[in-house]
Amino acid sequence: MGRRRAAVLIGIHVLIVIHIIHWLATGRTVSPVEPSESMETIETGLINAGAIFFLLAILSTLIFGRFFCGWGCHVVALQDLCGWLMKKCGIRPVPFRSRLLPLIPVILAVYMFAWPTILKGVIEPTLDRAWPEARAVLGPMPGVPTEFADDLVQEDFWSTFPTIAVAIPFLLVCGFATVYFLGAKGFCTYGCPYGGVFAPADKIAPGRIVVDHDKCEGCGHCTAVCTSNVRVHEEIREYGMVVSPGCMKCMDCVSVCPNDALSFKFTRPSIARGKPRNSAPKPKFDTTIANDLALGAVFFVTFSIARGTYPVIPMLFAVGIAGCMTFIAWKAWCTLSRPNVRIAPFQLRLRGRIKPAGLLFLLSTVLLSALFAHTAVVKYHKWRGLGIAEDTGISKAQLLAPTPREFSTFQIAEINAALEHLHEASSIRRGGLALMDQPEVRTRQALLSLARGEPDVAEAYLRRSIDRSGPSNDACTDLGALLISTGRRDEAIRLYEAWLSEDPDLWLVRDQLANQRRASGEVDRSIEEARALLLDIGDDTRRHEVRQRTHLQLARMLAYREDFDEAVHHYEVHLDDTPEATDVRAEYCMLLSGLGRHADAIASCEEAIQLLKRSEQVRQTHLTLARLHAGASNRVAAREAYDTVLKMRPWDTTVRREYCQMLLSRPGGTEDALAVAEAGIAETPKRYRYRSARQDAHRLYAETLSAMGRTDDAVAAWLAYDAQPPQSLHSLTITAQSLAQLGRADDALGHTERYLEADGRTRADRIGALVLRARLQLVRGEADSALAELDGLLAEEPHFWDAIELRARILMSQGRGSDAIAFASAHRDAFPDQPWYQPASARTSLLIADINASLRMSEPAIAAVEAAVDRQPHVASYRLLAADVHRNLPGGDSVAAERHLEIACRLDSLNPESWFQLGYACLLNDNSAGAEEAFRTTMRLAPRQPGLLDRIDQVYAQVGSRRIWSEESGSSSARPSP
């Protein structure tokens, strides 16, 4: 390496260090100047510094040739350094020459930079038109960006970079290992996707290494020093210049030429090099074509296994590993099949005899192959487990909510199957196969364990995650929500406070803590802590995001406490720094409008529309503007704003439905609403990606016709809604229910029959449709047919709860209450003892309690509801039902009702209705202090609920008492609450 190039490469690394220091010092800096960042631009349309840099590098390569690789790439500098160190140790890397493997950089370049656009812009629409069945297998995909915006400055600078634990092995593999096995520029030759772009561009560049034939003696010094594996002396002899796209213009050949015969000049590009003077240089390869095909398969398999492993190996790291493993596999084959094999400086086989170094090498190859096979098994179990878990459709929010966690038998089977695979993908010390824990696997195991009725197991997973990785926003809030959902609210609050004392920048944890403190009237404490945090952050730009999040949290807490002036100030501070936060602007504008500052809210939206660059942000702001005008009854302005929103995204049925509802609520707006709904069908694109939007557009049209009383037209619209492929159980249910409500149960039943006759229905969909058919038969007055339908279904699937409930209800409607109780009791007793069947068992107990209560059978009803809460002790709604039964039935127990309500308030501390019912129960038990505290909490959680205080007074009057405590105001503003 020449001194000038060494100095330039050192300077590049100095700039990298300065870039990082600037980010550490200020908290914000230019986005990473890394070509891979351009993938984000292709996917999202956000133009970052990496994309601009990569584009400039390509354009300069079209002029000067592939000079960037030799003079500006940090990986080239690493390889040159490793090669230099090896030479100092007496090891001279020998280039590995293959026919097919040099195509890998080109394939990777197409995959990274061209394939997303080809897939979304060419293949997807082609399949939409020509082969929709195949298109359905691919599922939904985001579209090609149609607009671009700059993202040149970032705060989370390191988010796309690996950790130190990954970076060091990467440097060792892509530096020393690739140089040792593949040659001085091994990674560039066989793995660099950027080289896959620069190499073709080099062929049309006029900048070339040329020769003065009068000075050239053909000594070969140029080829000897070339680290790019280019046979320089042959190319300059035949073409008068270097034509190989592998030439990185590092000028080593120019500097070493004893006669100064070589130089860099502008001439014709290599693609127009003409005929050779004598004969074209013949490339020399170490492999045959058959060998190359086999090695290509080895590379693909090892790359697929290595990428994302555990998941710490990024794509380029996996490329380096796969390249080295491919060479190792090749040398192992040679060691077994050739008489003489050597890897400098080790002789593996000599004159047909395998040397000790060869035996050790073969053993190492076997061990590496076993490691890759083991990793493949772990990745399979992880992929399969996560895939099954995704298919269940169970969300984290659903699991952590204080509501019943009730899943069908089909979902339970999927949950168990997913957990079996994820257990195999867990670490060895936890009974799995993996060599180390995987956070994604651990988190999903926690959530699925919770779905299976094992909160203790889920808690252990989450605590282990926090212990190993430290407190984080997601893990801490998940564990806190789990503790609250199991009635351990005080413990969750203590943990929130402990985590914040350890890391005050956990803004999401702080938000959750503030929400919980609302129930105990400690909002002022949260406000003071947020103010103290802002003082502590000060001008520290490294904590910029936390400061902005804290301003937003403080604004919301102050608005809750009705300190509107200060709340508006903090909203404005947040929006001044992040004007693209359209959801926050909507909050802010609605607050202003509620305070009577409608003009200020309108002005804020109009100003934001002028400032924002991305059309989606502009669209959201127009939507806020439409809602402001609609709330102020400015019908004309609201229609203009809604029309603008729908013009920008005509397939947004949610907005279109909102628009129609506004029109329907106004006198004479029905025809306008119908026109808006009908336009949704015409304007939604007829592509697979928009299939759900098309269905929703038909649904909205049918709903609008129903609201107008046009029954026949509505029926036709409903049938058209469900005719759009793919026909799902969800859409069938909506259609059938709507047809039945319109008095067309026969049409609904026929539609259900057609659904059941179609091919490709899963077992779960088929059974769900059978229950729907039984409901429709009941609507038609065919109770006996419905019972027969349900009997056949339960014989096939005895634990399907929807069928159990429906059959019991039918028996009740026939006056056969004792038969209904006996039937439900038999099925409850038949549920297995596993925890994941307890929700359905508890729900069946509630069904039995409801039937007994309707028959005025107090003791059996109370026993059944107690059995339900025993099976599901952490479900707040079950506690509310138990309290209702205890309080209202003859011989009920108001003390037991109060006990259940206290537990319900611990489980769902933010539900004002639970606290209201607790206050009522306390009054019934002459617990005036408890009643006062419960009612005060109700008012804190719903401070602006109309008529709440009158409702509380009515409860006091019912028990023959009078409220003697006054309403808590807490407002620092004389203006009305929004």
Overall SS class: mainly alpha
Widest β-sheet, arrangement of strands: 7-8-9
Distance between the termini: 71 Å
Radius of gyration of CA atoms, rounded to a whole number: 35 Å
The dominant shape is elongated
Notes on the protein architecture:
The structure is a single chain. With 978 residues, the chain is an all-alpha fold. The protein has 47 helices and 9 strands. The chain has a 3-stranded antiparallel β-sheet. It has a two-stranded antiparallel sheet with strand order 1-4. A hairpin with a 2-residue loop joins strand 8 and strand 9. The longest helix is centred in the middle third of the chain and has 36 residues.
Helix-strand layout with pairing:
Elements: H1 3-26, E1 29-30, H2 38-44, E2 46-47, H3 49-64, H4 67-72, H5 74-88, H6 104-130, H7 132-138, E3 149-150, E4 153-154, H8 164-182, H9 186-190, H10 195-202, E5 207-211, H11 221-225, H12 232-239, H13 252-256, E6 262-266, H14 289-306, H15 315-337, E7 341-343, E8 346-350, E9 353-354, H16 356-391, H17 396-400, H18 409-424, H19 439-451, H20 455-469, H21 473-485, H22 489-502, H23 507-519, H24 523-537, H25 544-560, H26 564-577, H27 582-594, H28 598-611, H29 615-631, H30 635-648, H31 653-664, H32 670-683, H33 691-707, H34 711-723, H35 729-741, H36 745-757, H37 763-779, H38 783-796, H39 801-813, H40 817-830, H41 838-854, H42 858-871, H43 876-888, H44 894-907, H45 912-924, H46 928-941, H47 948-958
Parallel strand pairs: 2-3
Antiparallel strand pairs: 1-4, 5-6, 7-8, 8-9
Helix pairs in contact: 2-3, 2-6, 3-10, 5-8, 6-7, 8-15, 14-15, 15-16, 16-18, 18-19, 19-20, 20-21, 21-22, 21-23, 22-23, 23-24, 24-25, 25-26, 26-27, 27-28, 27-29, 28-29, 29-30, 31-32, 31-33, 32-33, 33-34, 34-35, 35-36, 35-37, 36-37, 37-38, 38-39, 39-40, 39-41, 40-41, 41-42, 42-43, 43-44, 44-45, ...
